Amino acid sequence: MPVIVLVGAQWGDEGKGKATDLLGDRLDYVVKFNGGNNAGHTVVIKGEKYALHLLPSGILTPGVTPVIGNGVVVDLAVLFQEIDGLEARGTDTSRLRISANAHVIPSYNRSLDKVSERYLGARRIGTTGRGIGPTYADKMNRIGVRIQDLFDESILRQKVEAALTFKNQVLSKIYNRQAVKADEVVAELLSYVDRLRPYVGDTALELAEAIDAGKVVLCEAGQATLLDVDHGTYPFVTSSNATSGGACTGSGIPPTRIDRVVAVLKAFTTRVGEGPFPTELHDKFGDYLREVGHEYGTTTGRPRRIGWLDLVIGRYAQRINGVTDFALTKLDNYDDLDEIPVCVAYDVHGVRHDEMPISQSDFHHATPIYETLPGWKQDISGCRTFEDLPKDAQRFVEFVEQRLGARISIVGVGPGREAVIERHSVLSEV
Ligand code: GDP
Ligand code: IMO
Ligand code: MG
């Protein structure tokens, strides 16, 4: 039975949360496999807005088992704030499962994230300041603290002390900050143990058993292809694998069990934080799309940088993730435009590039080559089938689809759960 991986095709905030929610009642498990509370997914149900950071979006669908996989980094204070917030609004969170192998974000890594950004000055990444980078660095450096460590106080103390031997040198000698006391860190982490215990398990085993039993599993990425630490616009990336390969390492589900890969592609492009962005707009169209699309960060509230749709990036996302289906979101944000430029290739120092340039400095110097399509000048938010769309909107979707190399199965025409056109079922043909 199907295992679906859902990823972002651009720099995040494509509408992954809404896409997961749309598939919600056909799913049994939704697994978050990378990132942490740097993510921000907005889901609108019956006009009510939910902002999720750490919990998988599937938590909003009754009957779905949400899973925080081993590849996630967990800020325990945020975890319980989110659980409490949802419970207060009547959402049942009791089915949540958390991998014993997931890493926790200790408070010192939040401090290090913020202070290192300050020291980078003009070369900063523009991180969310949630301690994501330092926690993944600790994991690779083998000085991380895992969820399972919290259940053995003496092991926990040893791990925190080992990490702080190094971290306190960095904090005090490089960044001129006060050293952190191991006792305080241990006490804070232990304060969550009793609440945490019922959620924790061997989630890779639980998922394997679920898949064997014919359950439908969706692995939902945080961040997106160009924020992936290996395949993104390094160093302006996050510190995890947000592409489809990360779904395997971050959940324990092997590649041979994955049936479909859905990439969410926004009809224009946005980016939060620093880094190259060839189609970025600094004119009235950028301001217009930011306002009409409410493009302000769900996590940090920062205004998102805006640009036209970039199909070089779209094709790259198709190739790197092995995309079988695209969800094209926010088509309705173009309703009032006379014409819509779409980037189909780049010019780099006089040479045409149809694929992502191999070097980051070429990408920095890429000038978009546009093809311009006519707008439809009509409200499409009520359309529910492809045929309902005005002819020019249909042509736009078909134009994009042809150049992506995979079918567009879902088209978003508004923020609400119902504002969607499903051209093909991403589940039925598996
Ligand atoms: P995520 O991080 O990929 O889950 O995306 P975000 O939630 O950060 O940002 C996407 C925003 O677009 C949210 O506010 C969604 O409610 C909204 N959204 C998603 N799909 C559509 C769509 O088709 N049309 C419109 N107008 N808004 C959408
Ligand atoms: P969702 O899941 C957009 C960006 C940050 C910064 C870079 C590194 O909502 O699509 P980090 O704190 O991860 O070390 O920051 O990555 N970033 C995101 N941008 N959407 C996200 O998540 C993001 N998560 C991280 O702005 O540029
Ligand atoms: Mg987001």
Automatic annotation (TrEMBL):
Assembly and binders: Homodimer.
Top enzyme class: ligase
Protein name (Swiss-Prot/TrEMBL): Adenylosuccinate synthetase
Catalytic reaction list: IMP + L-aspartate + GTP = N(6)-(1,2-dicarboxyethyl)-AMP + GDP + phosphate + 2 H(+)
Gene name of this polypeptide: purA_2
Location in or out of the cell: Cytoplasm
Record organism: Paractinoplanes rishiriensis
Record-listed Mg(2+) binding positions: 13, 40
Active site per the UniProt annotation: 13, 41, 139
Cofactor binding notes: Binds 1 Mg(2+) ion per subunit.
Keyword list, A-Z: Cytoplasm, GTP-binding, Ligase, Magnesium, Metal-binding, Nucleotide-binding, Purine biosynthesis
InterPro entries: Adenylosuccin_syn_GTP-bd, Adenylosuccin_syn_Lys_AS, Adenylosuccinate_synth_dom1, Adenylosuccinate_synth_dom2, Adenylosuccinate_synth_dom3, Adenylosuccinate_synthetase, P-loop_NTPase
Residues reported in the UniProt entry to bind GTP: 12-18, 40-42, 304, 330-332, 412-414
Binding site for substrate: 298-304
Protein family membership: Belongs to the adenylosuccinate synthetase family.
Listed cofactors: Mg(2+)
Xref: CDD domains: AdSS (cd03108)
The keyword Transcription belongs to this UniProt entry's keyword annotation: no
GO biological process, one term: 'de novo' AMP biosynthetic process
Function: Plays an important role in the de novo pathway of purine nucleotide biosynthesis. Catalyzes the first committed step in the biosynthesis of AMP from IMP.
Pfam family, one: Adenylsucc_synt
Binding site for IMP: 13-16, 38-41, 128, 142, 223, 238, 302
GO-annotated cellular components: cytoplasm
Pathway assigned to this chain's UniProt record: Purine metabolism; AMP biosynthesis via de novo pathway; AMP from IMP: step 1/2
Superkingdom assignment: Bacteria
EC number(s) from the headed UniProt entry: 6.3.4.4
